């Protein structure tokens, strides 16, 4: 799945994935041909932000796996500072200066992506189930990935259904925003996404250049 997602994007991204209870993280850089750039490294879980005391053990495992993937993606992108991500608005990870990213976990799988902060990134992953599969699941995953790309800078609550899937191919999609959310996120705006599937999961990655209003000048100084 990682290889397929990375092959279908031309942005400078690092992707990472692992099994929730696994001991290895698989990483790949965007632009690599499927299967050619995958590298497995031992999982190194960074310090995690606290969860409520009543949080289920499975929730803690999923958080650890997602943050481990994010840390490895940041290492591969050249970040040398702390790999312990704080909590941003809505509980999403707070990425280091100059970086943006997204992470997702579902079932036994966790994924993360990171790139320069000039990009809005949204990654969603869903496990197939008898209740949600086929075209309905694909639309859901694509909209959720667009929502996760927009929310950190739009900073307003909105329904992911505000994104309409207007173009769909066997590996790519285009979503159109049906209403204005905030400056830089306006009605009619189009977002590009890629998607991939396995027998058990479906994932989508939205990658959109940020409006200059939101761009972090630090990202221009990154190697």
UniProtKB/TrEMBL annotation:
InterPro entries (UniProt xref): 4PPT_N (IPR041354), Enbac_synth_compD-like (IPR003542)
Pfam families for the chain: 4PPT_N
Annotated residues for binding of Mg(2+): 124, 126
UniProt record, GO biological process: enterobactin biosynthetic process
UniProt: CoA binding residues: 59, 67, 124
Cofactor: Mg(2+)
MF-aspect GO terms: holo-[acyl-carrier-protein] synthase activity; metal ion binding
Keywords recorded for this protein, A-Z: Magnesium, Metal-binding
Top-rank lineage group of the source organism: Bacteria
Domain 4'-phosphopantetheinyl transferase N-terminal: 54-114
GO cellular component, one term: enterobactin synthetase complex
Protein name: 4'-phosphopantetheinyl transferase N-terminal domain-containing protein
